[in-house]
Specification:
The chain is α+β, with helices and mostly antiparallel strands. It has one domain (3-143). The protein has eight helices and five strands, in the order H-E-H-H-E-E-H-E-E-H-H-H-H. It has helices spanning 3-13, 27-32, 46-58, 80-85, 121-129, 132-138, 145-166, 172-186; strands at 15-17, 62-65, 73-76, 97-102, 108-113. The protein has a three-stranded antiparallel beta sheet with strand order 1-3-2. Strands 4-5 form a two-stranded antiparallel ribbon. Strand 2 (62-65) and strand 3 form a beta hairpin. Helix 7 runs antiparallel to helix 8. The longest helix has 22 residues, at 145-166. It is globular. The two termini are 30 Å apart.
Amino acid sequence: MQAKQAIAWIKRSGIAVESARAGVPSLAHVVAGEPIRGSWWAHPKGKDIFRPSRVIRRSPDVLVCRLVDGKITYVHRRLWPALVSLAGRFSKQRLSALNEVHTPAGKHKLLVTPFPDWVPDEVLQAARKLTEKEAASQLALVLSPHRVEHEAAVSRRTHSFDRLSEAEPRCDASRALGVKLRRLIRT
């Protein structure tokens, strides 16, 4: 998949996950041409998946967040007004914009821009013009009653654990355990 094809694909899809199995399209699945078991990094087409994923992540027309099941999710700009209009149905953490940068030391750092700080003014204006029904029809893939209910429950559990874990200082071992517990809670 070439750069232009990747952007055209996410524009057509509207919402997609980078690599997970979900009720929305998956970039890794599309590029590999088959469902992927385990990590896509180990797949024979891992490099072919990596390149378009970075093109999509760098696009100013794509929001990278964790909207679908807490997984890396791409949302094309054409759906931002609907997403903003129905933001109350999702946790703010799921709507935070994610941007991966490289530090001078060569490490990767994830920058998180909270919702609604990343939302451009023209998107806010467009969101105000949408009816709830119009917005919901645009986001039908992620608004099934079961999915919204599940997302809310996962968000409550994760948020409660985060607050509990921030209440007291932890050693490295307990910090690692906390990370493992959060992963289990999110699945």
